[in-house]
Amino acid sequence: MSNTSSIAVLLPTRGRTESLSRSVFSIVEKAQQADRLQLLFAFDFDDTVGLDHFATVIQPWLDDRDVDYEAVGFDSMGYAGLNRYYNALAEKTDADWLFVWNDDAVMDTRHWDQVVRQFDGQFKILKVHTHNEHPYSIFPIVPQAWYQTLGLLSRHQMIDAEISQNAYMLDIMQIVDITVTH
């Protein structure tokens, strides 16, 4: 695997401006090679607060750091359609890894991207540590081959649950040394 973007961070968001900024800044600032990241944002067309914040705060910040990103607009699908946002974002990238992220998560681990890259070429679902050590991978990091094989990340809005259940049944869940505050 040798794509330009090693890790695509998939990030649906709606109206959470302060937490979105904290989340994005942490994921970029804690990466060793932010130039190998691709951030894919999903915004609802009617989320003027979120879109304005992105255009005035996050977009210039990412531009200053030369981070690859794309903001994609959607008709609102709500929580019931959460998987459809993630699936649509996954379709837009050929990055080696797809990181299911959200706008109130904060990356704690310095050089987290290097931890992910240790598993390049392996068909594993990577599970980060979170505050409550939930049995599911709350923020699954999925190989591109998962999306290519299934044509989607998840059929259900509880994307973390579906991916985790499948990963456990296939014995491909890999706990990694990355910590996220959620």
Question: How would you characterize the overall build of this protein?
Answer:
The protein is an alpha/beta fold and 182 residues long. 36% of the residues lie in helices and 24% in strands. The protein contains six helices and eight strands. The chain has helices at 17-29, 48-64, 82-91, 112-117, 144-150, 159-170; strands at residues 7-12, 37-44, 68-74, 97-100, 106-107, 125-129, 141-143, 173-181. The strands form two sheets. Strands 3-2-1-4-7 form a five-stranded mixed β-sheet, sandwiched between helices. The protein has a three-stranded mixed β-sheet with strand order 5-8-6. The radius of gyration is 15 Å and the shape is globular.
**Number of DSSP strands?**
8
Q: Which geometry do the CA atoms define?
A: globular
H/E series, N to C? EHEHEHEEHEEHHE
> What Rg do the Cα atoms give?
15 Å
CA-CA gap between termini: 30 Å
